From TrEMBL:
Transmembrane regions: none
This protein's record includes keyword Oxidoreductase: yes
Gene Ontology terms, MF aspect: oxidoreductase activity, acting on NAD(P)H, oxygen as acceptor; oxidoreductase activity, acting on the CH-OH group of donors, NAD or NADP as acceptor
Any Pfam family hit: adh_short_C2
Protein name (database record): Sorbose reductase sou1
Keywords assigned by UniProt, alphabetized: NADP, Oxidoreductase
InterPro entries for this protein: NAD(P)-bd_dom_sf, Sc_DH/Rdtase_CS, SDR_fam
PANTHER family: BENZIL REDUCTASE, CHAIN DEHYDROGENASE, PUTATIVE (AFU_ORTHOLOGUE AFUA_4G08710)-RELATED
Source organism: Pisolithus tinctorius Marx 270
Similarity comment text for this entry: Belongs to the short-chain dehydrogenases/reductases (SDR) family.
Taxonomic classification: Eukaryota, Fungi, Dikarya, Basidiomycota, Agaricomycotina
Length: 303
């Protein structure tokens, strides 16, 4: 494969840690002085990357933030509503400090509905760190309780405001910095399996509508931002045991069995089960993945 077109295909892109795989094997064969070594986990490393995570005070957002730190991120800035971070955030911050890889977790009070505030905070991060590589838009709410024919205007709008507009403002804020530094980046929007299928039990049309909008938002942003090497993907979890779902389970304990029966694995998921996919999406291990929805629902979709 030496013709011009193959050369052009090759120079379109190269891994920063090339050669990999077959290329590495061929190079090692040609040069016996090269000692082959495994590189697959190097591709997942987030060494020195800077990240912003919304909803990072607890749950999936915080789980994600810790994961990015473990993978080597220089710093992960967590945005959330409370003035002061939670006990579990402080414990996580301490845990990260003790990892010994110079990574750190920072907390900022910010409401994702406030576009100007998010732009400003992201700009401050960019000014301070001189890069912004990863964004995880995880802030979200659910407001069950009223059927779709009775849902008051404000209740419906509130969910759309946080779960759709807030995700957009977060992605925008981070994307502007990524574009500014010209290094590309990875934006991961936490959508939901409920963006593609309706939820059995609680009446949450506002939630499913908002999450569905996020799926299309990511595809559109991915198409606009591909030329800047900014990748935009969604991650769609099924039922995961967090405070959000815990509130439903407290009110309706029978839902645990019902939700567990909805997938072939026969259980709901743990937040830590998202660690691998988040690291993959954030890292150079997924550089050809954009505009995609990664479903992590124990097989709910397969039924
Ligand atoms: N838990 C699940 O089963 C599940 C499944 C699919 C998708 N998700 C999505 O994952 C994300 C995280 O959910 P979770 O289960 O960890 O819930 P959670 O309630 O534990 O965490 C959500 C976080 O978002 C924050 N938040 C809410 N409104 C905000 C605002 N206006 N500005 C900033 N932060 C705000 C909350 O304070 C909270 O810390 C949400 O987007 C949720 O819709 C959850």
């Amino acid at each position: 494969m030496t013709s011009g077109v193959h050369q052009r295909a090759k120079i379109q892109s190269t891994s920063p840690i090339a050669p990999l795989g077959i290329e590495a094997a061929v190079e090692a064969k040609a040069n016996p002085s090269i000692q082959p070594r495994p590189k697959i986990f190097d591709e997942f490393a987030l060494t020195d990357r800077v990240a912003l995570v919304s909803g990072g005070n607890r749950g999936i957002g915080l789980e994600t933030a810790i994961t990015l730190c473990e993978a080597g991120a220089r710093v992960v800035y967590c945005f959330d509503l409370p003035e002061e971070p939670s006990e579990v955030f402080l414990a996580s911050q301490d845990f990260v400090r003790k990892l010994g890889n110079n990574s750190r977790l920072e907390y900022f009070r910010a409401d994702v509905r406030d576009q100007q505030l998010l732009w400003k905070k992201a700009e401050e991060i960019g000014d301070k760190e001189q890069r912004l590589d990863i964004c995880v838009a995880a802030a979200g709410i659910v407001r069950p309780g009223t059927g779709c024919l009775e849902s008051p205007e404000e209740a419906f709008k509130e969910v759309i405001d946080v779960n759709t507009n807030g995700v957009f403002f977060t992605a925008q804020a981070a994307g502007r910095q990524m574009a500014c530094f010209g290094r590309g980046g990875s934006i991961i929007m936490i959508a939901s399996a409920a963006g593609s299928v309706a939820v059995k039990g609680p009446e949450v049309t506002s939630y499913t509508s908002a999450k569905s909008a996020v799926l299309q938002m990511a595809r559109s942003m991915a198409c606009e931002l591909g030329c800047k090497k900014i990748r935009v993907n969604t991650l769609s979890p099924g039922y995961i045991h967090t405070q959000m779902t815990g509130a439903f389970l407290d009110m309706h304990p029978e839902l645990l069995d019902e939700w567990s029966r909805l997938n072939p694995l026969g259980r709901i998921g743990r937040p830590d089960e998202l660690r691998g996919v988040v690291t993959w999406l954030a890292s150079d291990a997924s550089t050809f993945c954009t505009g995609s929805d990664i479903i992590m629902d124990g097989g709910h979709h397969a039924w």
